[in-house]
## 1
Amino acid sequence: MGKPERAAVLREPESILTSHVFRASKRSQQFLSYVVNQTLEGHADLLKERSIGVELFHRPPSYSTGDDGVVRVQAGEVRRRLEQYYHEQGGSSLVRIELPVGSYTPQIRWNRDATPMNHETSHPAKNQRELRLATVTGLGLGVVLALVVISARVHSGRRLGSALDQFWSPVFATSQPVLICLAKPIVYRPSLNLYRRYSKTHPTEFRTEVDRYDKTPPPGPQ
């Protein structure tokens, strides 16, 4: 048996012993582990009722197997539990371990038509840890992304600034002289008739102010 096959065979007892069928019986777990390990190590010829009773159940070497049927009873219990396990598992096991009636040497055969069990089913605890890790990682990435978006918006707002900042930014961005021109629009200009009437009583003052806003010489008083 090559290393891959041996590894697959060793995984099968682990799945069996951790199932609910075998968890409730420590003796059944010990018996199955013992006979499978002895078979894989090449000691299947030592799997006799007396040797199992001495090695596994700590019976004295001279004990009467006819009076003490602990090995036979436990083997029958293991057979029953194996049948129940494979009945519930269906065709999911790649390796099938059987304990033939009248023998204590397990038979290991390959189930070529098996559909491997889903990783979530075979390792629920590990999957729960992976799910929690993925959830925490996703939340962390979401927080980081939100911070990046907020930071980009803040920096963008700082770059845009107010309308006043945008107006004066070209002035402060250059080292060249800046010429600032202030317009002086005419807010109010009297009509010609009003100007003529008022200029009679204010011939000098009013004419001087109007001439400052109007480049054409005003007409004389009539």
## 2
Amino acid sequence: MPALSPSLISKLRKVAEAPPPAALEKCDFCGKTIPPEHRHFADLATMRFLCACEMCTLIQAERGVFKPLPQRYLFLENFNMPATLWQELMIPVEMAFFVFHSARNKTIAFYPGPTGATESQLSLGVWEKLEKLNPVLQDMGKDVEALLVNRTGAPHEYYLVPIDRCYELIGQMRVSWQGISGGQAAFETISRFFRELKTRCL
């Protein structure tokens, strides 16, 4: 059997060492393969998020059955959240997201845990105080955009993001959560998520 040439061996080695291709995503409406960057729609009745190709994005926007998710990502650098106001929210962890729920006609707070997103009691008065301190919240998209708060480290971080990113974070935390406090894996998951999120906002 003839020996393999050095150039062929080098090429084979590069193929073997190459990272596996990213999993292909498909449009939830037509099944077509779509690129990583694509539009999403929300089924508000079930809080299910749907991927859409360019053609289905146009079709679904016209039909109006599902709500298109916004594409803006804002890092709120000068967000004003006094410690006393955070205490009034009575959230037992240092992370939460807030979204206006049209069907219930109010803003709802959720915080993450090992079983998923838990709703917290949020009084109208506390949210109104927060809006007065931060007028940007008055422009938050109803049902589809959220204020995401991360106070697990210093400095604290505040973002306006599409609502599906909040549930993405919850899902990642559920997978990595260990024990009562979450463990190192959960901490690393949170850190990585917010590093990537901040880069997205730049």
## 3
Amino acid sequence: MKTLMSTAAAALFLSALPALAEILVEDPYIRTSTPNAKTGAAFMVLTNAGPEADRLIGVSAEIAPRVELHTHTSDAMGVMKMHEIEGGIALPAGHSHALARGGDHVMFMGLEAPLEQGGEVTVTLIFEKAGEIEVSVPVDHERKPDHGAKKHDH
């Protein structure tokens, strides 16, 4: 009886866990404009390998007091502006979304320490259905703009 209760409790617990394996994070890296910068950005490719749509709704990291999902848009005069993405980033089932330079990205504001070449930062991605996924993101100031670039759905 005790074994049956333990098995049932374990099954209930496991069924309540988010489907973490359905979101894949590929080629993550962080860059800053200068070693003493107060802002930085992270880039990566997110793939929803699951059967249901999901949405990246937030992000956090201990390296900055403010971490947001950002994008670039052009105003009527053709001037590019960066701003927070309202409502998160949709990830349809079976599709990928690139967080890339000049487009959507993770923005760190108020960096509390320099980001040193070769270092790593733990970033927590928060999904509507998959929940929180921690990613270890390398700091790579030398990466070329198209390094690791692949064709992805956007």
## 4
Amino acid sequence: MIVGIGVDVEEIERFRCMKAGVRRRVLRRILTKEELDYCMRFRDPWPHVTARFCAKEALVKALGLERGVAAVKRWREVEVRGNPPRIRLRGNLLRLTLNLNVTSIYLSLSHSKHVAIAVVVLEAA
């Protein structure tokens, strides 16, 4: 049974055009070291960074958290891993999904030259 669906789309330029100091702080706040290492392997890392941010936003929406970005104190509790991409949770978000009896989290990522998008579907037994 599907218990949540979330979608997020963001413009890649939002991350690409940040001032260097601001971008460093933002990346440290939202990405794990593994995610950052993965993204920085690419000639143009910003579509991959943006897609991971979208995945985290889409998960929050699928969970039905009211305040979106502000509702999640620790973005690094969510990690996008692998190819095909999948979500790994820790901490409060892991406890929340277990309390909601979520048994599977499905993730789809895509990006074009200008935008990235993520779709998250939560399934419970």
